[in-house]
Amino acid sequence: MSDRSRTPAPVEASAVRKTTKVAVVGAGAVGSTMAYATLMRGSARTVALFDINKAKVEAEALDLAHGIQFMPMAEVIGSDDVAVCADADVIMVTAGAKQKPGQSRIDLAEATIGLVSKILPELQAVAPDAMYVMVTNPVDIVTYAALKISGLPPTQLFGSGTVLDSSRLRYLIAQHCGVAVQNVHAYMAGEHGDSEIPLWSSATIGGVPLLDWEGIDGRGPLTVQARDEIAHEVINSAYRIIEGKGATNYAVALAGSRIIEAVLNDEHRVLPVSTLLDDYYGISDICLSVPSIVGRHGCTDRLAVPLSPLEIRGLQHSAASLKDVARKFGF
């Protein structure tokens, strides 16, 4: 028998490339920019946009699709039908009430929780095995409510938390100290909001504890005053951006795409996501951001980073504030 007549050998299942799919719920400023960032970074092979506004979501998907030639190879789809999210590996929930200038994140809670309670069961029906990342604000309360509504384990559903806030913190430290931001390791913890705290005692620059940093090139150490000014800027920067342009979208989209990659690539990356705590420095039954391990199985572990007594009190205060809000909504 000639070679031409041979039947091709079947391809083993292990040899078939597994495609990855990310669904972004909400095609507003944050959702559409997150889809863009995910495509530009090549985070997933398929990016699906879901929004109840049919004309808006289809237009956003089409605009993105027209630029696929200039991105890592991928497919982008958009629809007002939840079926577009079917079999997604990761679902990023960005839909929610829009934060207005001067409005606190907590003020947004009621409308956003109502929306989440409606769309979560629909999403679970089409993508039961997805990792769910809540992005919409107030993210800690929304994440806590979403866990109660969905019944999903806290490994499978968590919030974007202070991943963006920590990036802001690192940027400001780098600017003050004259070093590359990639060499700064520091976290914001607690609420993604007014009661969040910087973890100064565990922060480092190139392995040097930040509190021992003596400065370079004529730049002095980070004094208490400088640290307080940086923390104030981190906490209030979102309000400044919203006042100036109406929404924050670029940095939060990049932070979200980083979480997506940590999951899809099973990186076991340490990220300060908002997750349900269980006796973390005495804090339980509330979602807060602490350094956690994120990989293909979701948010699997929380790191007990060393905290000063002041930081422990700050974290506990943040937890108490959020618990008060959660109780107001019956959770």
TrEMBL record:
Pfam families hit by this protein: Ldh_1_C, Ldh_1_N
Entry's Gene Ontology molecular function annotations: L-lactate dehydrogenase (NAD+) activity
Regulation of catalytic or functional activity: Allosterically activated by fructose 1,6-bisphosphate (FBP).
Residues bound to substrate: Q99, R105, N137, P138, V139, D140, D165, S166, S167, R168, T248
Source domain of life: Bacteria
Residue positions binding NAD(+): G26, A27, G28, A29, V30, G31, D51, K56, G96, A97, V135, T136, N137, S160
Record: active site: H192
Domain Lactate/malate dehydrogenase N-terminal per the UniProt entry, residue ranges: 20-159
Class of this enzyme: oxidoreductase
This protein's record includes keyword Ubl conjugation: no
Keywords from the named record: Allosteric enzyme, Cytoplasm, NAD, Oxidoreductase, Phosphoprotein
One GO location term (cellular component): cytoplasm
GO biological process: one example: lactate metabolic process
Primary localization class, coarse: cytoplasm
Role description: Catalyzes the conversion of lactate to pyruvate.
Family under the similarity heading: Belongs to the LDH/MDH superfamily. LDH family.
Name recorded for this polypeptide: L-lactate dehydrogenase
Organism listed in the record: Sanguibacter gelidistatuariae
